[in-house]
């Protein structure tokens, strides 16, 4: 087989393409995307070139070998059964270990996503003659300052509004009973629904401080939860710094574990995956931030109660793919109902319009260049991820689904067409 390396300029920049003879038709498949060598560090670039040479030599040897079918004969059924049983027990043990380590796995995944999100900025600084260690220090320090600044503004606001909510919640329920829209609903549907009973239950619940402690899981449990959350955040930040500092070396170590003749495809796909994941994390955070800021401005104009607290909830919900915006709409409209039905309608209409603008204007500009997943698979991936790993699973469902599609498209499909 003869390899032809040529430079081509596509949307992603100059890349290396590998052309092959008919003996390796999969390499010529149009869906295969090769890595941009200019985006790799010097050591990985040399590893890639050596892998290209090794693939060429392996392809030459492959043309000399004929495919043969080997008859499967069970010579020692007891030994075979023992090996299969041992393999099944090992798989069960590994599954149990993964279940026990699920919290640590979530920390690692979260830290890895943060590192991949910051990696493009570090590379940008490297291209502008900034040494990688200095670039990592600048990017990570800036990240901490931005997060710390946001928390310094948001946490006092949340604390004040939560205290106000606990103090004034009973008055909101008392005020509802005198609203015209409530009286109209009671007149039309009062024979089917006991509105006064529901209001009374709500007043009793919010009027007793012990119920608020119960919702929070008790003072001690709430304190432990806050401490655990801060500890988890600190662990994730430390891990993300380590991952960011050793990301290139970690990828090279992973590449070295694969056969050199197959290393080209592994490097190609891994670089695409890491770039897509980093871009996705940046994109989803930007979209959620835009959603929360615009929603806060709207809620302030409409005078929705506790606009700052609700905006934080909108930001967290907007991180959830597909369902987040719908849940945010329900949250804002429900809280706005305590102000007036008009405010609730305005909030609902605003979010219906915003979701259309986000879907057709913001998302294509921010996200479509990074990941492209069919809508049906987004739903399936979000449901599966949420079921397996909760909120974190829902957050990472789209990049994981895109990763699986990329592997199928660039590895499985070309091989099937070659057979």
TrEMBL record:
The keyword Protein transport does not apply. It is a multi-pass membrane protein. InterPro entries: AI-2E-like. It comes from the Bacteria. GO terms for cellular component: plasma membrane. The chain crosses the membrane at residues 72-98, 104-122, 134-159, 219-245, 280-302, 308-337, 344-363, 375-408. Residues 1-28 are annotated as: Disordered. One of its GO terms (biological process) is transmembrane transport. The keyword Transport applies. Keywords: Cell membrane, Membrane, Transmembrane, Transmembrane helix, Transport. Pfam families: AI-2E_transport. It is found in: Cell membrane. Belongs to the autoinducer-2 exporter (AI-2E) (TC 2.A.86) family. This is AI-2E family transporter. It comes from Leucobacter soli. The lineage of its organism: Bacteria, Bacillati, Actinomycetota, Actinomycetes, Micrococcales.
């Amino acid at each position: 087989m003869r390899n032809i390396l040529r430079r081509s300029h596509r949307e992603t920049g100059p890349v290396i393409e590998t052309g092959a003879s008919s003996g390796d038709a999969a390499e010529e498949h149009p869906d295969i995307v090769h890595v941009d060598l200019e985006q790799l560090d010097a050591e990985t670039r040399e590893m890639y070139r050596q892998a290209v040479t090794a693939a060429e030599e392996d392809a030459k040897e492959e043309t000399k070998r004929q495919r043969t079918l080997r008859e499967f004969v069970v010579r020692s059924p007891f030994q075979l059964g023992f090996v299969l049983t041992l393999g099944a027990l090992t798989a069960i043990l590994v599954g149990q270990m993964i279940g026990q380590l699920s919290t640590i796995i979530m920390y690692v995944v979260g830290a890895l996503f943060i590192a991949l999100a910051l990696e493009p900025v570090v590379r940008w600084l490297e291209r502008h003659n900034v040494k990688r260690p200095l670039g990592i220090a600048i990017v990570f320090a800036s990240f901490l300052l931005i997060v710390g600044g946001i928390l310094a503004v948001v946490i006092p606001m949340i604390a004040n509004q939560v205290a106000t909510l606990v103090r004034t919640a009973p008055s909101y329920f008392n005020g509802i009973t005198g609203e015209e829209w409530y009286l109209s609903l009671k007149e039309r549907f009062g024979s089917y629904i006991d509105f006064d009973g529901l209001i009374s239950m709500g007043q009793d619940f919010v009027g007793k401080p012990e119920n608020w402690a119960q919702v929070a899981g008790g003072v001690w449990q709430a304190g432990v939860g806050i401490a655990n959350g801060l500890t988890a955040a600190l662990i994730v930040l430390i891990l993300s710094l380590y991952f960011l500092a050793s990301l290139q070396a970690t990828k090279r170590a992973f590449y070295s574990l694969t056969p050199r003749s197959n290393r080209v495809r592994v490097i190609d796909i891994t670089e695409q995956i890491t770039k897509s994941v980093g871009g996705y994390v940046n994109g989803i955070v930007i979209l959620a931030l835009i959603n929360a800021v615009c929603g806060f401005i709207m809620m302030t104009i409409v005078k929705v109660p506790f606009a700052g607290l609700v905006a934080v909830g909108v930001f967290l919900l907007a991180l959830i793919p597909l369902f987040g915006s719908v849940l945010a709409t329900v949250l804002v409209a429900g809280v706005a109902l305590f102000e007036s039905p008009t405010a609730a309608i305005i909030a609902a209409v605003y979010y219906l319009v915003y979701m259309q603008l986000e879907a057709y204007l913001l998302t294509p500009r921010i996200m479509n260049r990074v990941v492209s997943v069919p809508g049906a698979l987004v739903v399936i991936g979000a449901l599966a991820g949420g079921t397996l790993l909760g909120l974190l699973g829902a957050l990472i469902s789209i990049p994981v689904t895109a990763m699986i599609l990329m592997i199928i498209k660039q590895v499985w499909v070309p091989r099937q067409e070659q057979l």
